């Protein structure tokens, strides 16, 4: 006990002032009734104070916000009703009193349930401020989003399925811009500011020449600038040779002789690896979001048609055009729901014989598809080998037209195979009896596997010729570890990826201008029966997705060999958006079969992840196993590209950090890593099981709640009939 006078501290003064100020600010009104006081007391205490009924004693904690105030159960009391007091727990919102009384009850609940109002008010103000800032940022991002108005118009006129294709294209534009930003900050700006400009690809300094065979470093720059006429520049633009070969576009240009070169080497490698990791995380996150949306749009969780009809309209619309688009969107949504329900009922009525015939048809269709794909792979392999042999035996600058056609022969064959075979897949999938969503996804998967396998065959044949895969005993491969005829093989691969990117873009433009547009004119201006029977043609989402996924996969593969390729692809995708939009609005007719965006978006991200996996595997194999070119590039003095990372660790990090990094990269680190991942996986599995059990219990309570309401409706109807008869 204190002796003498008690002098309160600053904190005690604050508590006293806040306490009396709170009492002064309380509403001085009439006392609450006994029922209202009990409601306030129970509402403030909540279910944690022993109000949980007996039949839910063993129930795990339910999510916050779940209210079973009206639910009853045959085995126990009503939720929120104590055994000693029959008065129910009723939220103030549901009390049959005026608004002033409800506010008074709410204020009393707040004062009685809070323990530290100062801290709570401060935290509440901070939450409100953060939410306002977040909403402002989201509004700004939404206002500045790319192609917002065209995407809204596309969704209203053609449905959410085709809209998902254009949003996916916008997503790829952002991915490429992120890659270009990383390359610009980590590679291009340091190269321009901190190094001297170098000329064309040439031999390295004396240290390199003394260590390696001279025939591996005798790169020549002849014919790069000679005969610089219009045709030569035309060839350079379409083949990536000449002035483009010695520019910042390709790997061979980045060769420095300064001490800063080692840091640029490290940033060059790590920026590319970081970008691939960012792409993987971004795509995986999008897949998880779309998978949740896809599950919520499935048949078990679908919104009722009556709800969509009576609450689907947006009353903020004041424009006639926007109203028409919204009406069309609601019509498309209802059409999809009814079509899926009809197909579900038809599947339920199928007999055993019909199911057997359907399975046999699907097996035969898959066999035919495998045969077609095998023939396409064989043609791609043979054409790639022929093109590489032609480039080594014939001067590329003798006849420029023949040279360009020969160099574009592999991309042409790949494009032809990937143009006609998906059409065949789309025609044959109709025989398999799938729903429109399944048809789109299955055709998309087959087309993507065809495209990725074709690209893999092309890379393998290119690796056989350039990197001597499986041919190390060849005299042209034994000296350098790669084919000595390709002095800067990274630039050669970059040129191949550049040509494929340019060809894919040109094929998109030419198909629109030389195929779709003339066919639309034939359909509109002539009475040809074949043209009238086929019509304008539909906007094939799988084929268009196939094209842009192929372009993005090529960009990922060529990112190490052509660092500025993402910038070029961003420009191409920007133009492709308006080309596809024009084709959709002017040259195609709306699809008769609509499909949901929730299902298609997930598969779009999945096939993009497959392309990223193919690109990552090919890049990592070259980074860890292939010998860099001795005549050009940043890594000519290293046995492998990855060797620069251990050297940087031993140079820039202190000994304790070096030991940590070496341990993280050793096999001993795998054991604790596996244990940690197993524990994390166990936690997620347990949480998923608990959530599933909670969902089942909530469904049971909802069913009981509905039964109680139906019982009350029956009782009220009987009472009304009895009263009417009595009258």
UniProtKB/TrEMBL annotation:
Transmembrane segments: 171-194, 266-285, 357-383, 408-429, 502-519, 554-577, 602-624, 668-686
InterPro entries, per database record: TMC (IPR038900), TMC_dom (IPR012496)
Listed GO MF terms: mechanosensitive monoatomic ion channel activity
Protein's organism: Pleurodeles waltl (Iberian ribbed newt)
UniProt keywords, alphabetically: Membrane, Transmembrane, Transmembrane helix
Highest taxon in the source lineage: Eukaryota
Protein name: Transmembrane channel-like protein
GO cellular component entries: plasma membrane
Pfam families found in the cross-reference section: TMC (PF07810)
Signal sequence annotation: none
Keyword Acyltransferase: no
Intracellular or extracellular location(s): Membrane
Domain TMC, residue spans: 488-598
Topological category with respect to the lipid bilayer: Multi-pass membrane protein
Family recorded in the similarity comment: Belongs to the TMC family.
